[in-house]
Specification:
The complex is a heterodimer of chains A (338) and B (359).
Chain A: H1 15-29, H2 32-35, E1 49-57, E2 63-64, E3 67-68, H3 69-83, E4 86-98, H4 103-120, E5 123-132, E6 140-150, E7 168-171, H5 177-185, H6 203-211, E8 216-221, H7 226-235, E9 241-245, H8 253-262, E10 275-279, H9 284-293, E11 301-307, E12 314-317, E13 323-325
Parallel strand pairs in A: 4-5, 9-12
Antiparallel strand pairs in A: 1-6, 2-3, 4-6, 7-10, 7-11, 8-10, 9-11, 12-13
Helix pairs in contact in A: 1-4, 3-4
Chain B: H1 10-23, E1 28-34, H2 35-43, E2 54-61, H3 63-66, H4 69-79, E3 84-88, H5 102-107, E4 112-114, H6 118-127, E5 132-137, H7 144-156, E6 162-166, H8 172-180, E7 187-190, H9 192-198, H10 205-210, E8 213-216, H11 221-237, E9 242-244, H12 256-265, E10 266-273, E11 277-286, H13 295-298, H14 314-318, H15 350-357
Parallel strand pairs in B: 1-2, 1-7, 3-4, 3-5, 5-6, 7-8, 8-9
Antiparallel strand pairs in B: 10-11
Helix pairs in contact in B: 1-11, 2-15, 6-7, 7-12
The chains are: A alpha+beta (338), B alpha/beta (359).
């Protein structure tokens, strides 16, 4: 690849664009569909129900401990499909790049995306690149869309319509890692901490859970707004309530430390590799065991249950034995974290 | 986590609750003056632990909440001047002014930046010599020394583009005024970090003049419960006095260096408090010695007429006369994402804490 930085011409559609596509994107993503260089990819999709999702990534900084914007762009979209019960298959990726962006950095991001896609077993089949004038976007923004196939048996998982009192709520590990990593790495805050983002594609963990045959009632990835937001979505307007045991929710020491320092509540801090799931009581232990065996579920825990009381509301039993309500995040706790 | 977990220990908490229940007979109302206490009390779910004869009410100790809406309006007016950068603590950013907020102003292109300390604001001033940097000074004795340090450093560094717009206030006048207004109280859970600076002497008048006990409390659950225990004991024994529970941080004489800096940089002036009106010698203006850093004296602005919201009972809530749940707007017209009054905006505001943790 000639040159060291992105020029406006790399987004022109001409010679430079073609070079960039060939020598960065196709080189790393390396799928048959991309190599054909057609205007749209033709996909072979088995089954009847299709899951489709899209997400844009604008995280700042673009490289952080535990990942980069490219890892987020693949893991985030894969997870959105997987938590709906779908098997992710194909991903599109669009880049908006600021003029002057180092090509070496772009290549690092693209290589990470290719690597994550391979791990997740998805193919990047189409994409687009636009370059904007210096100062018109901050370094690089990525949009990814994803398609997956959904087994009709899992159709209820996205909405949680089969949740009943007595069901158990689980999480696959510690909360707040991503949000506090980003916070600690922002230039304007001089905090150094031994933490990294939890950003990871969770589709294999999820398929291992589903393969147990357990009655999985609900899954959602707890990204922006933290687990408090998912737990509020899980209870608001429903005819059951939730009870969460604060002490059972794993939080890393460093994350707690930064939260204490800056006045954040870890329940509201973003994650990029955490799912909240609800399973039937009789299956909870079995699911927990399977989760703990996966590399992204080692610290999995049962954190609460669905109850018939206080419908529409979630209560947290605090570590000291008191209780408080769970509510959604209002406004931005921390802008541009994903 | 060290120094945190010890103070959130369940068995210690339960022991304290047991002791409180053992000695508490009278029906009492205790006011936590400080917004930080309100937040802890709601976050840890402390009210559910107390016997029904002990009621906790929230006081005027959220600086954003008690400040005049005109403060926001004037800050916005500074932000609209050419070549001005507004630097502020995050708490102020979403507080509604009469027709706008700092957040909305930022979205429409004004240069408004969140800082964690006045030193960040000084850094911005140094890096932008062609601009005027205005720091919005808000808070009680806790944050006032930080602002004073900022001004003293600006003087040392010969900065001529750094200004402070001060809304700083001091706590004791409001604590006295509440009782004068007829608010029924039996004791104060007194602010921990204010007292770290001032020492415990500032509350001496409260037991003397009003016969009320003051216990200076820390912010962890065991701190708050121990303070409640100490107040209950005082009340049951009829021995109202000033005591320090938060001994690991607060000394009777306070932080003398910080006090000296405050005395150097600020002078007392009458100030307006939401719910209490103008209280004499309750606000901190910038002293003559440092007046070149005073935004009010050096930057001319036209401030739009202040409009207060109808229906919002922030004033009554700040006096402890009403609870957030008594407000018609609570959770309906007024929520953290669409706040009417300042008490719903600030994390330390009673309405916000109730909405978030105890709706």
């Amino acid at each position: 690849m000639k040159g060291k930085q992105i020029l406006l011409g790399h987004g022109s559609g001409g010679q430079l664009s073609h070079e960039l596509i060939k020598e960065v994107f196709v080189k790393h993503f390396n799928t048959e569909e991309l190599k054909l260089q057609t205007d749209s990819a033709i996909l072979n999709i088995p089954g009847e129900l299709i899951s489709f999702t899209t997400d844009s990534y604008v995280v700042n900084p673009i490289f952080f401990s535990g990942g980069n914007i490219g890892k987020l762009a693949i893991a985030g979209t894969v997870n959105d499909l997987a938590v709906s019960g779908a098997k992710p298959l194909y991903i599109s990726s669009s880049f908006i790049i600021e003029e002057g962006f180092p090509i070496a950095d772009l290549e690092k991001i693209v290589a990470t995306m290719a690597d994550e896609a391979r791990k997740a077993g998805v193919k990047i089949v189409t994409g687009d690149t636009k370059v904007v004038d210096r100062g018109k976007c901050d370094k690089i923004f990525i949009n990814t869309s994803g398609i997956g196939v959904l087994n009709p048996e899992y159709k209820h998982i996205g909405t949680g319509e089969k949740i009943t009192p007595g069901d158990i709520i689980l999480i696959n590990g510690s909360i707040g890692d991503h949000g506090m990593t980003i916070m600690a790495e922002r230039n304007d805050l001089n905090i150094s901490a031994q933490i990294g983002s939890d950003c990871a594609p969770l589709n294999h963990l999820i398929s291992e859970i589903l393969e147990t045959g357990a009655k999985v009632r609900f899954m959602r990835d707890a990204t922006r707004g933290g687990i408090a937001t998912v737990l509020t979505e899980l209870s608001e307007g429903r005819n059951y309530g939730l009870e969460i045991d604060e002490e059972a929710v794993p939080v890393k020491e460093a994350v707690r430390g930064i939260c204490e320092l800056l006045g954040f509540d870890p329940f509201y801090v973003a994650n990029e590799g955490k799912i909240i799931l609800v399973v039937a009581k009789e299956d909870a232990e079995k699911v927990l065991e399977v989760m703990k065996k996966n590399e992204f579920g080692k610290e999995s825990a049962i954190i609460g249950k669905i109850v018939g009381e206080h419908p529409g509301k979630g209560w947290i039993h605090t570590g000291i034995g008191g209780k408080r309500i769970i509510d959604m995040l209002s406004g931005e706790q921390l802008p541009r974290i994903c | 986590m060290k120094y945190i977990d010890e103070y959130r220990d369940k068995s210690l908490v339960q022991g304290l609750v047991k002791e409180i229940k053992k000695i508490s007979v009278k029906e009492i109302k205790l006011m936590e003056v400080c917004g930080g206490h309100t937040l802890s009390i709601q976050k840890f779910g402390i009210p559910a632990l107390l016997p029904p004869n002990i009621k906790l009410i929230s006081g005027p100790g959220c600086p954003v909440c008690v400040s005049d809406r005109k403060f926001i309006d004037q800050a916005i007016a500074y932000g609209r001047l050419e070549n001005v950068i507004i630097t502020t603590y995050g708490d102020l950013i979403r507080v509604p002014g009469s027709t706008s907020s700092l957040n909305e102003e930022k979205a429409s292109g004004r240069d408004i930046r969140i800082v964690y300390s006045t030193l960040d604001a000084l850094k911005i001033a140094k890096e932008n010599p062609g601009k005027k940097v205005v720091f919005l000074g808000i808070g009680f004795e806790t944050t006032a020394p930080g602002t004073a340090a900022g001004i003293i450093n600006a003087e040392k560094q010969n900065l001529n583009n750094f200004y402070v717009y001060s809304s700083h206030k001091i706590m004791p006048p409001a604590m006295g005024a509440l009782i004068d207004e007829g608010v029924q109280l039996h004791g104060y859970i007194a602010p921990g970090h204010v007292s770290t600076i001032t020492g415990s002497g500032i509350y001496d008048d409260i037991p003397k003049k009003y016969g009320l006990g003051c216990v200076i409390s820390g912010f962890e659950p065991t701190d708050i419960l121990q303070s409640i225990y100490m107040l209950v004991k005082q009340i049951e024994n009829g021995e109202q006095k000033v005591e320090i529970q938060y001994k690991r941080v607060v000394r009777p004489e306070g932080n003398l260096i910080a006090q000296k800096m405050m005395a150097d940089v600020f002078e007392l002036r009458p100030d307006w408090w939401r719910g209490l009106g103008v209280l004499p010698a309750s606000g901190l203006g910038i002293s003559k010695k440092y007046e070149k850093f005073d935004a009010e004296k050096n930057l001319d602005v036209v401030v739009e007429p202040t409009k207060e919201d109808k229906g919002c009972i922030c004033g009554e809530i700040l006096k402890g006369l009403k609870s957030p749940k008594d407000c018609k707007l609570f959770g309906k017209g007024c929520s953290p994402s669409d706040p009417v009054g300042a008490c719903m905006v600030s994390h330390e505001g009673a309405c916000h804490a109730y909405y978030k943790y105890n709706r």
